[in-house]
Amino acid sequence: MPLFQRFTLTQYLIEERRRFPGANGDFNALILDVALACKAIARAVAFGELGGVLGNHNGEAGGSVNVQGETQKKLDVISNQYFTRMNEWGGHLAGMASEEMDDAYQIPAQQPRGNYLLVFDPLDGSSNIDVNVSVGSIFSILRAPQAVIDSGRDVIEADFLQPGSKQVAAGYALYGPTTMFILTVGNGVSGFTLDPNLGEFMLTHSHMQVPADTHEFAINASNSRFWERPVKRYVDECLAGKTGPRGKDFNMRWIASMVAEAHRILMRGGVFLYPRDTKDPCKPGRLRLLYEANPIGFIMEQAGGRASTGHQPMLGVQPTSLHQRIGLVFGSKNEVERIERYHAEPASTGQDNPLFAERSLFRT
Ligand code: AFP
Q1: What crossing angle do the helices spanning 26-47 and 74-87 adopt, rounded to 10°?
Q2: Topology of domain 3-205, per CATH?
Q3: What is the pLDDT of residues 2-54, one digit of tens each?
Q4: Which end of the chain is more exposed for a tag (fewer CB within 10 A), N or C?
Q5: Fold designation for 216-356
């Protein structure tokens, strides 16, 4: 399709804004600032070692550690700086929060403050960056509490603790063979591909939909001995394939970059599981609620898929802390609903009877 027939991200946002005659353009400008940060990160990722951006932050000796207790890569820190610097000046934000920052980020005193909160994981999958595997950025936009808007006060943790259903926009950038920007503003999901010559995100995927069924699942199988019973049952049935109760064979994928998994699922269906497990009793899951599970969950639900803790819809969870972790299952609606059913069944349903004892293909 000739370039002049494609919509840019800016044109798409203007079209969307026409649904809200009273809109003042703040929201669109914020999304474009986020997109600019993602373009800057895409460039840094593409240059890799040529730009001296690989490896651990503060040198190879283990590097610095973030609030998650995880070693920070140089690009984690650089990506976080792109997000804060490119979004703090526009006057659209009351504050920010990031996987890479312990506390909420205050808009500098010399900058105007706005009506929104931006929450993000600036570089997801960063353990893959040194081995040139796709990584991404994830973002979520919330409305700031009215008291914050009225007073212009500094933000506090409580201002961010809103359920995922309160998101006004969410999306991700995927730094893969092409750089893509996937966005929902609550009216379906659209995909934009970066034209490296123009430096513009061009609309290439409209009204993206997750197929309701799938034969593909994604889980880190090395954790199988820590899984709860419903997860073990689900995975065993997938592995049993045609010979088991599902009556069809399944394929497994695990990229260890959730953004890449989410994009595959958005494009061709599938289910992703990073469930709560017993590996580290202090951690109720690996992934973070506010800037990973909620934005990806919003995208999936807007695309006709489903996102869940396994026990309840993800977007209904009331957050209790900024960096809260949570078990996450998302993807093809019918598969996620099956996993939720398994979690809802009483644990003692015949399963304690040796005749019905589950035989896991993963030796416990
Ligand atoms: P990193 O950003 O630390 O690489 O973590 C990526 C992630 O949060 C998510 O993107 C992956 O799906 C998941 O962790 C991978 O977890 P494992 O390292 O346990 O496979």
Answers
A1: 150
A2: Fructose-1,6-Bisphosphatase; Chain A, domain 1 (3.30.540)
A3: 767 789 999 999 999 988 888 888 999 999 999 999 999 999 999 999 988 88
A4: N
A5: D-Maltodextrin-Binding Protein; domain 2 (3.40.190)
